[in-house]
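As promised in the previous annual report, we have extended the structural survey to additional targets. Below is the entry for Centromere protein Q.
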Amino acid sequence: MLTKSSLLALENMLGLSVLTVLSLKNKEKEESQKHLILSSVRASRYKINTVSNLEEMEDEEEESQEFQFLQLSEQMVQCLPALLSLPANKPMLQEHLMKIVPNPPAVIKVLQMTPILEDVRTFLELAHKKVDAVQAAHNDCSAMD
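The corresponding structure token record, generated without further manual editing, is:
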């Protein structure tokens, strides 16, 4: 049989052992949770960065395509032949239009009903500006002769 003091000493040692084991378990649990929280944060950051990078790449690609379209449009306008000078006679102009477009009112109606894409509108505006510039230059050259 153990003495009372020995029993108290054993009880204290057992209590300390239990506390030590519990504190180690809590520490392991906290470290495990920290690791999971950090892993989640890293995964979220990775996803956010990936999505952000994809959006930037798509934006850059779209800008590049728009730039190429505008460049091509400008080149095409520069390659347009000079306008034929038609007499101001309306019937002859209408005949000429009828050869190019068999039913102009129908075409105009369809164009008005169809939403014109912004790129096409931009192309047409650039084409008109180039034509105006070419006509002005042609008129200037004709005036000098």
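The CA atoms of residues 8 and 54 lie 68 Å apart. The mean pLDDT is 78. These points will be discussed at the next consortium meeting with the crystallography subgroup.
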